[in-house]
Amino acid sequence: MKRLIQILTQKWFISAIGITALIILIWFGGPYLGIGDSRPLGSPFNRLLALLAVIVVWGLNNFRLRFKATQANSEMIDNLISAPPAPSETAPDVSAEEVALLRERFEEALKHLKHTSLQGRLFGKQYLYELPWYIIIGPPGCGKTTLLENSGLEFPLDEYKVDKKISGVGGTRNCDWWFTNEAVLLDTAGRYTTQDSNAEADSGAWLGFLELLQKQRPRRPLNGIIVAISAEDILTKTQQERDLHAHTIRQRIQEVYTHLGIRVPIYFLLTKLDLVAGFMEFYDDLGKEQRAQVWGITFPQDTPQQPADVLQLFSGEFDALVKSLNSRQLWRMYQERDLARRSLINGFPQQIAGIKPLLEDFLQKIFSPSRYEQRPLLRGVYFTSGTQQGSPIDRVMGSLAGSLGLNLQALPSYQGQSRNYFITRIFKDILFKESEMAGSNVRYEKQRLWLERAAYAGTIGITLVMILIWSASFTRSELKINKLENKIENYNKAKNNLQPQPRIDEIINTLQAAKDISRIYETEQDTSGWQMGMGSYQNYKLGNAAENAYHRTQQQLLLPYIKQSLEYKMRDTSQEPEELRRLLSVYLMLGNPETLDARTFRPWVTSSWQQQLADQPNKQARLTAHLDELLKTELTPQTLDQRLMDRTQRIVCQIPLTRQIYARLKQQADADIRVYNLARLSKQMDKQVGRQIKKILTSSTESATGADTSASMPAGPISAGSISSDTEIPGFYTYDGYHTVLNKEGERTTKLTIAENRTICEQNREELERADPERLLRDVRARYFDDYVDQWNNFLATIELNKIRNINGAVNTLNVLSARESPLEAFVRAIAEQTILQRAQLKGLLDRFDLGKKLTEPNNPVEQAFLPLHKLLQSEDDQPSDLQDLHQQLQDLYAYITDISEASDQTTAAFEAAVARMTQNNKDAIRKLRSSARRLPSPLARIVESAATQSWGAVLGSARAYINTVWRSSVLREYQTSLENRYPVYKKGRQQTALVDFGRFFGASGSIDNFINTYLTAFVDTRRWRQRSVDGRSLGLSAEAMLQIQRAARIRKMYFQDGGQLPAVRFRLKPIYLDAGVKRFFLELNGQQLSYQHGPQRTTKLEWPGIDDNNRVRLIFERFGAGRFSIVKDGPWAWFKLLDSSTIGRTRSADQIQVTFSTAGLKARYQIQASSITNPFTNRELAKFRCPKRL
């Protein structure tokens, strides 16, 4: 069964099945294959030829593959022999000699293998490079070579009497190559693993060895790694020595993975198990077949999705092995009669169990996963014995003797015939069967994968294309015809719904239905015939018929509709004569299509639709598309309304010839020349300069009307989408319009207009006969120049500088304006290119290396009107031009603003600069630039003036930000801490402001007073309380802030009459009235007392806060007889609290009030005489004061 499976999976067998299927398909299916009307495989002879061709191709391909394999095998062997690679780039030069020695060792063997059949494939040979390759690594003397010698494998070199290995036995110093019929085994030198004899040479030779493998087998250099370690090393080496072995083996594995770019399975073999005491005695009864079996642990195969944690499985699997030994122990002891041997058999399972912790630790050191390394693929751990040499190691008795302090007698060496244990099937049943488990070189596989994908895609693509071509003859034709029938049905419905006088919607629907029919085939009119000519595809017949039907519908519907629209407008008596002339011109074209001028006809029609369908752009677009298609065909002459033409002609003949000529020229220019706007102006400049201009200039239609735009928001940066139609100049009034239309077409249009008028205007024939074309053209030019100047003046009046919002914005704008490639100069040049209409004059002026030339006298009114702008570009007597002077001043202003911007504290620097400008009258950069701007023509004057003014505004804005920062950190913070929500600023406040805090805030040299003197004096006139301004700009304090600061100043005058930092208010009290029932009225104010008993009305001087610090005010009413009534107010503001609770009456004098104190129905009225008209008792400034959060 196994052999049958091998046969069925061979490539040649699978390909043979495929060829057989193809032969059957050709023989039986060939007669049904047709290409058009042809049946190429209809006759048996043709089918036989086809079968013969298929078989020949298959045979040649098999021969090619076999030849290629033979060549590849031969080439690999030749390369190994004659062209060994240079030492690895990572290897030192000292190892180059040894790397060469490796190749010499197997040169003789490879020559024999070049033509040797390695059996392993049915009906053919398996080549050397196709065999699986394995390397064996391990420390010196671990039994690697012995393992291979006793593996029981077949070595083809035996027939040539060549040693099966290319090296000696035991502790080999060079790499041994073992060639078997099933695999190539590479026994590496033990020092390659440990690299302890000469680390530099060993490492270089090892890496050179890996490089050799990678070069000769790029796809899969190795199929597996065999790690061999002897039981002697595990049992007798110290922990440090074992760890060193584990580290070096792990490093060699990672070097294999890294240098070869693959992840191969690893098989761990514990050799020389015969050195474990009792091994030979325990297994002495095994026959040859039993010794060939595998003894060890094979781990589950892991996958990238579920990697197996084999090290966790080891402990349980090892215990299972020990358990199997225990189950065999009694039987072996029963068989053995020798007591010494029976004792060794009895202890053998325990000896094996004692190896577990050492072996488990060793495996952990080698195979434990690490995030920095590729995880090794450990497939199994196996135990072997090749030749029985050396004294067995009794670890159990040795440990016991050591604990008792006894000397352990060494066990005798094995004296019998050597036999191998548990080796043969490891290779045949495990390693070789898993040869395909090894990964492949990722880069090589990617290349191979892409090549295979390309081959598959190409094959599939060709097959699909052939299938599509063969099926298109019927399928596509049927689909197209079905689609055509549906479209024709839609067209008939739309046509049947047409009114006698069709509406525009009906016309559009019918035209679109006809267009949809023609679209079915129009995209394939240019398709090569071979694509669709293999069947009944009716492209040309139906496609041409559909296209003709569409054109007939256009002629029947669209042309009459256009004619009716023209007639409707021509009948409109409100039409201007010039518009009627244009309508008549277009109308006459419909009667004689040979004279139709598409440049005149199409703009009028589309413009008419834009007016008629202003809110329906989709319909406009569809009609325009149909019109464009119509103009590509030969039009059918339309029958014109002669009476309408005669009436229109009479009106048109009244239009002056000059107006007609001018209108026709403008109409032609509008059709041929694009409008001019700032987007086009910027494109005239250097690309970089043009981009910079877009950043700083805007177009505002308000500027054109003369409105003040200094405080308005800019319209936005210059771009095609942000410029409104009001800021566009018709193409007629550009340099191109002047030369390509007026100059070039002016004379012809004049003569043509005269000729047309002579034809249609019989009543003006005599006048037209006398018409002078030159005089008419001069009149047209005169009007043209006037309009040209007006258009450009209006256009330039809309251009202004973008709004500068802060210091950084000013830096950016001035950086552009003062750039080395001056954008203002480029801006003026661009204007000059459109307003200097003589080419020679323009070239002389705009030559950057000929600026010294003077302008000649203007040749026309346009050049005269814009002469001031043109002169900016010229210089005289080696003196700089005005633009060059302006550029220097812009650089000065840029430096001035940049110094402020780059200061350590930008707002502080701006504040200091603003104070200097407000208090000094120096000629700084801003003043100089504003002065120069007044001498410049528009729009440059407006742009430069705006740059200076807005830069100054940015400085003031930054200064205001600095002042606000100081205000919030000092004045506002103190107000919120000491006064806010406290009496007397807040009348309903429960807490009273301490007098010291009140004085510190409002008093002389207090917080507000100091702030005004330090930060605001330069910006505010404190006598009239107005903001100072320079160059039309002030600090921009809010009206509320100004009001509150002014209130604070008045509060200082009211409450700090001594000019100190503590409040002091002096006043006089005079009794006016006392109830008759009151015997005596008594008032005490912070240590000051007065009393009144219906006697003379004397005035008493008092002051607040008083002479004591008891902060109390007390009123006492003493009645005749018994009874006293009092009012008591506490706190520093007790006196004002008392006044708030009393009745205040005003007098005619501003410094006097009357206050009525009352309690329990008793009253006393006093007159309070303030020391000044700034009376704190009547003024409500303190209650109205609120400290603003920002100025």
Automatic annotation (TrEMBL):
A Pfam family this chain is assigned to: IcmF_C
TM region positions: 12-33, 45-63, 454-473
UniProt cross-references to InterPro entries, sorted A to Z: IcmF-rel, IcmF_C, P-loop_NTPase, T6SS_TssM-like, TssM1-like, TssM1_hel, TssM1_N
Keyword Metal-binding: no
Domain called Type VI secretion system IcmF C-terminal: residue spans: 1067-1172
Keywords assigned by UniProt, alphabetized: Coiled coil, Membrane, Transmembrane, Transmembrane helix
NCBIfam families on file: VI_IcmF
Domain Type VI secretion system component TssM1 helical, chain residue ranges per copy: 961-1059
Type VI secretion system component TssM1 N-terminal domain ranges (all copies): 200-458
Protein name: IcmF-related protein
Residue ranges constituting the IcmF-related domain according to the UniProt record: 510-835
Ranges in coiled-coil conformation: 474-501
SUPFAM superfamilies assigned to the protein according to its UniProt record, in alphabetical order: P-loop containing nucleoside triphosphate hydrolases
Keyword rRNA-binding on entry: no
